[in-house]
Amino acid sequence: MTAPVPDLAEVLALTPAALTPLTPRQIDAFNAVLDSEYGRIDRRKTAAWDALYGALHLRKIPRGRTLEWPVPRDKAEEQARAVLTSEEAPDRRGAISTALERLDTLREQTRFLDEGARTILDREWTVRGGWPRFFLVQDGHIHIGRQCHTLRMTTQLFWRPELSGLTEEDAVKQEGPFLCTFCYPSAPTDWKLDPADARRKPECSGSRTNAEPLMTPTQKQRGHGYVTCPECGKTDVRITSTWRLRSHPPMKESRLP
User: Fold this and answer.
1) pLDDT tens, 97-112?
2) DSSP state letters, 98-119
3) Which pTM does this prediction carry?
4) 142 vs 212: CA distance, rounded Å
5) Domain spans of the chain?
6) What is the pLDDT of residues 130-143, one digit of tens each?
7) CA gap 56, 69 in Å, rounded
8) b/e per residue, 120-133, with b = 16+ CB within 10 A?
9) Other CB atoms closer than 10 Å to residue 68's CB: what's the count?
10) Beta bridge mates, 245
11) What does the alpha-carbon distance between residue 25 and residue 39 come to, in Å, rounded to a whole number?
């Protein structure tokens, strides 16, 4: 059974006492929403950093197979604040100031989450001695957490709160080959590669459709970004490198992985 989906306001209003009667599934439903908010803030931070680098007239340079900014973020911020306190580049101060203000605001939002809901939820999990948690890699397996050696630090994980608290035996009975065999040694290895045979969530009809009409000029210039799906209304749908909407479940089922 799927755990009820709280909204962000409920997450931010959490108190330790409110968690006491809740089950692991209910508590981790809050965690799923909270992590979604962290993700939203992180995406805005990335945009603010990009704006700051641009205001400094810096451009990405090739490093291996990727393009990276020529200086780390702390050095870029140091340069930006130095410009604001000097007499140089008056034409860039407005853009630099705006980017720094956005970063400061987003850092404060992160700190608010860290010191509030995140602390409360983590403490409850610790006080209870912890319980099994399950995380899904899109189009991949379910894992015990980021500590699995098959994952990269950049791998995006999605909470599966409806499984929280299950023993490995019960999880194997319910999810079978969808479980990572490194995280869950007793899971069967007959992973089904054919999506038609896999028990996946419904896919929005807007998935993999042309995103160009929805993209802003800036997104077209950068070649990436997020848009709202015109079919289901889900926000923050990623644009692929070929300018199509990334595969996603309908909005009513997208709040939890």
Assistant:
1) 999 999 999 999 999 9
2) HHHHHHHHHHHHHHHHIIIIIH
3) 0.70
4) 33
5) 8-201, 202-257
6) 999 999 987 788 99
7) 11
8) bbeebbeeeeeebb
9) 11
10) 239
11) 21
Closest CA to 32 of 175, 158, 163: 158
Angle, helix 93-113 to helix 24-55, in steps of 10 degrees: 170
Helix 24-55 and helix 119-127, axial crossing angle in degrees, nearest 10 = 140
Beta-bridge mates of residue 143:
135
- Token pair recorded at residue 201: 């969530």
What sign results for the dihedral spanned by CA atoms 60, 158, 35, 231?
positive
How many Cα atoms within 13 Å fall on the side-chain side of residue 92? 21
Those residues with Cβ within 8 angstroms of residue 75's Cβ, 6 or more apart along the chain or in another chain: none
Rounded CA separation 159/18 (Å): 21
Question: Are the beta carbons of 3 and 26 closer than 8 angstroms?
Answer: yes
Unique residue bearing structure tokens 């899904």: 136
